[in-house]
Amino acid sequence: MRFGVVLHLLGVVYTFVGLSMLFPLFLSLYYGEDPYPFLTSLAIATVTGLLLFSSFYRREREIGHKDGFLIVTLAWIGVAFFGSLPYIFSGAIDSFIDAYFESISGFTTTGATVLPEIEGLPRGILLWRSLTHWLGGMGIILLSIAILPLLEVGGMQLYKAEAAHITSDRLAPRIIATIRILWLVYVGITVVEFVFLLFAGMNPFDAIVHAFGTVATGGFSNRDMSIESYNSLSIELIILFFMVLSATSFALHYNFLKQGFRAYIRSSEIRFYYSIMFAGVSVVFVDLWLNGGLSPAEALREASFNAVSISSTTGFSSADFAEWPSLSQSVLVLLMIMGGSVGSTAGAIKMLRITILMKVIYRELMHLIHPHAVINIKVNGRPVSQDVLDSVVGFTFLYLTVFVVSSLGMAFLGFDIVTAVSSVAATLGGVGPGLGMVGPLSNYGPLPDAGKIILIIDMLLGRLEIFPVLILLTPEFWRG
């Protein structure tokens, strides 16, 4: 383990986080708000980053795989710390644990908040809150990798640790070029949604906040009642469309520009994902219509927006789904656990893993009928290696284990089963609002510090997909 290498590159990430505070700082100055919170936070983050960067200069051009895992984990822990400083210095949040919760919820694109009132906060704080979403959406590490060649540093191991996708859709021969393409798509979708929201009647500030929250599938709004406060069908339809888009692999979006709709049609994961979303919306629609006392039009509108929001792990709300019938709430919890597409900004288990697991189950059933048959598991017409199958099974087992243990921990703290289970599903899956005490019109503020710490760990594990964090706990990682 080369700690000098690790600290040197962490300096790059922390410096970038500090400099990103210039945007809310300028906005604060524009609106005549107190710039002190961002000046101080910017100085602390940037000076820390520059000291680490300059004090631990290294000559090696490539990062070891152990270095990559440690850098990624410490980077997310560190950026959440620096991201919490504006909340504390502005007085928006008094408790450090609450501020850290809000910050890591932003960077992990979870969207769970401890704030009881949002609309009264300074605009600089609201912009920073949404900006943490947008930076974390594609991964602040990936952005750092994109600029590492300027520092004569290789980035392959960081990419493996941060974006260990089941399939690798290389868009360009070099990994850096691939990341730049993904960021170009990411920025482009953000700009397009921003323009659409402007035409739908949002003011520029609201439009950028909700564009950041949608494309990052984060869900932080600057309105206490989220999207429900606008009561606008056009705004809901625009955000719904971009939630689906953002929960779909960004590599497919780029391929769509070259190949057309064939890029989506040929993806078995996307076909399965869209089918699950349609099924979820349909069940919730019927339940709200027959058991929720809503008209067919109202039921369709609420079911479509909120089920897609949960399935994409965005977490925007256009209704208080914590008051929905039990069947609808059960469907939402299942969607929280399943999540979106691999290669997107969505969280949870993700549909490609579920697709592969279903194929594994089908293969085992066929082996019971034909014991000697050789049945290959394929995705998009290509065989899936045994290493990938082992990874999928292992990750799913770990994910469900963390889910059960965390839910038991929340129940031990005295929460009812709905609040305990949904709070864990919502934070581990990067969704944000849950059910019960943490519904869309509530917040996580009343939870005790012990509960918030459990959910902070869940947010980190969910965002980094468990393995990069747990591997640091093994003795073998620190040997040699």
What does this structure look like?
- With 480 residues, the chain is an all-alpha fold.
- The protein folds into two domains: 1-164, no CATH class; 169-480, no CATH class.
- Helix content is 65%, strand content 1%.
- The protein contains 21 helices and two strands.
- It has a two-stranded antiparallel ribbon.
- Strand 1 (378-379) and strand 2 (382-383) form a beta hairpin.
- The chain is globular, with a radius of gyration of 22 Å.
Features:
480 residues, 2 domains, two-stranded antiparallel sheet, 2 strands
Q: Which value, in Å, is the CA radius of gyration?
A: 22 Å
Total individual domains: 2
Cα(first) to Cα(last) distance is 7 Å
Global geometry? globular
> How do the strands line up in the largest sheet?
1-2
Q: Output the number of helix runs.
A: 21
Task: Please state roughly what percent of the residues sit in beta strands, choosing from under 5%, 5-15%, 15-25%, 25-35%, 35-45% or over 45%.
Answer: under 5%
Helix content: 55-70%
Number of strands: 2
The SS-based structural class is: mainly alpha
Describe the sheet with the most strands.
2 strands, antiparallel
Give the averaged pLDDT, no decimals.
90
Low-confidence stretches: 163-168
Order of helices and strands: HHHHHHHHHHHHHHHHHEEHHHH
